[in-house]
Amino acid sequence: MLETVNLSKTYKDKKAVDEIEIYLDKGESVGLLGPNGAGKSTTISIISSLLKPTSGDVRLNGKSTIKDPSEIRKVLGVVPQEIALYEELSAYENLKFFGRIYKVRKDQLEDRIQEVLGMVGLKDRQKELVKTFSGGMKRRVNIAAALLHQPEILILDEPTVGIDPQSRNHILETVKKLNEEHGTTILYTSHYMEEVEQLCNRVYIMDHGKVVASGSKAELLSILSSEDTIQVHLSKTTDALIEKIKNMEHVRQVDETSDGIRIITKKGSSILSDLVHAAEKEKSQIVHYQVEVPSLEDVFLHLTGKTLRD
């Protein structure tokens, strides 16, 4: 339905997007992941026809949207990372304004406004000024605005950043329902891996402007099928200890986490004895040691060397 072909965007001497190729089949929910600066937002801006690429193309049903963006604008809804609402207007007034921008027919607009307000759970607050809303409520109005013209494709750029858990859950349920019950094709970016795992059939991982991996969750997890992930909590962590662990046989990667270190080793190799000795030499002790089942976040960390929040 939608694809990018050798898509690139260069700013002076920096390549923000580097010949990426992604596609969305009709009715799919696809995740786009990457650390800050990976090129996700630039990619979304180009797909949305807000930014022209340096080279390459975006095609909707085989037709270039770079040459003629009018067709994709008819079928695309975008929920931007930043709140895009008029604070001095009510939720209803905002939706009425955006409905006219989208050229929703006058005889249908009122019904559409009430329908999308119902989807995001804000019918009873529609007459209140947006400036009085919480961050989560504003984001829900943003989603409602993107749905007014019944888009076939919906792009959501980190729609749950900095909001309360209740609004976050409501947004996730809304996106899931749009995809599963209404057949809306979804492109979803997030800083929360669990959201992508919950919502998306396939995932693209970007880093430094390139797609470094793609596939279903099972396909991405197979990247680590020859490796074990070990979570270790130490009484004390030093740079010298980290360096010793990195130099151990069969150790492929070591990363510090909020509660210790994560070690990726060759599958089936035992490093516990070496780890105990190394810790003792640095006057540290192993508090907890666990071999984990690989997660999508482990794959992400393995490929990019960064967590989503970096």
From TrEMBL:
Query: What are this entry's molecular-function GO terms?
Result: ATP binding
| Membrane topology (UniProt) | Peripheral membrane protein
**Record domain ABC transporter: where:** 2-233
Q: Which InterPro entries match?
A: AAA+_ATPase, ABC_transporter-like_ATP-bd, ABC_transporter-like_CS, DrrA, DrrA1/2-like_C, P-loop_NTPase
Signal sequence residues = none
- Where is this gene product found? Cell membrane
Provide the alphabetized UniProt keywords.
ATP-binding, Nucleotide-binding, Transport
Keyword Nucleotide-binding present in the record's keywords: the answer is yes
Q: Which domain of life is it from?
A: Bacteria
The record's section on SMART domains has: AAA (SM00382)
Question: Family, per the entry?
Answer: Belongs to the ABC transporter superfamily. Drug exporter-1 (DrugE1) (TC 3.A.1.105) family.
Q: What is the recorded name of this protein?
A: ABC-2 type transport system ATP-binding protein
Q: Which organism is it from?
A: Cytobacillus eiseniae
